[in-house]
Amino acid sequence: MASTTQAQEPGGFLPPILPSPPDSLHTSNSVPHLGLPHPRLNPLRNGSNKESSFISHVDRRLLAISRRYEKRYNLGLGDEDTLLDDERGYENFGEIAKDMNGVIDVVWVSGTPSLQIPFLLNIAQTVQTSLPAFPYSPQSTFKLLNKLDLAFASLLQGSDVQTEERLPGFEGRRGKLSTTDKVRIRGTVERTRVAVVEVAGKDVPVDENTSMVQSATDTDEDMFSEDTSITETREGGGHRRWEMDIARVYERTLVELGASLDTSGLGGFG
What we know:
Blueprint: H1 49-70, H2 93-109, H3 113-130, H4 138-157, H5 179-200, H6 220-224, H7 238-241, H8 243-247, H9 251-263
Helix pairs in contact: 1-2, 1-3, 2-3, 2-4, 3-4, 3-5, 4-5, 4-9, 5-9
């Protein structure tokens, strides 16, 4: 394994204030879908050198993202020309989404639920708190949230929701998410849904090319890139394009959580 990884976990949850996701679980045509990479066959052994290296690697990448996020306040102060790309503050949500996408892939490839769950919670929490800090970027936002949705729903199910393959570490009851994990995921999901609605509802220009179609040659990186020369406002109809995607934020995860938390006696989403 080339890379290594790990993280912490947010908690708490808000009462459900958004409508439940639509009955159909088909992905909206507005956002081309990004799948998850194939994980390693076996989880990293607890306490092994590979696990330690993985945790250190992911921690470093998340720290670098955090530093660039904080430096967004320093943009325009005159020293950007001397900085490397990975040292500059983020200028738009597409940039932070691209970096987060790479970390999600590394975490997923580990095939280790004990690492995937806390790291993905950490990433999802960071995404949620970062959304209001930048102009509304629907394409980048929904592509990143789609990938997190796939990851959480797959972990809750114990198998890849797209391929139906059993995930590493979920043989028998191994890897089964605890009720605490599920409550933390639910809290992050609900706060993110609120954040997306609030950001999308602001009268600000979209800071990216909101093309509805991905060409066959587009890469994942291309799909997170921003085009600030093209802007659409709510009045121009660009906002309405993404209404279906707003309603479908974390839809798979909500379905899996609704089923599992109902059976644990904690109730569904109403």
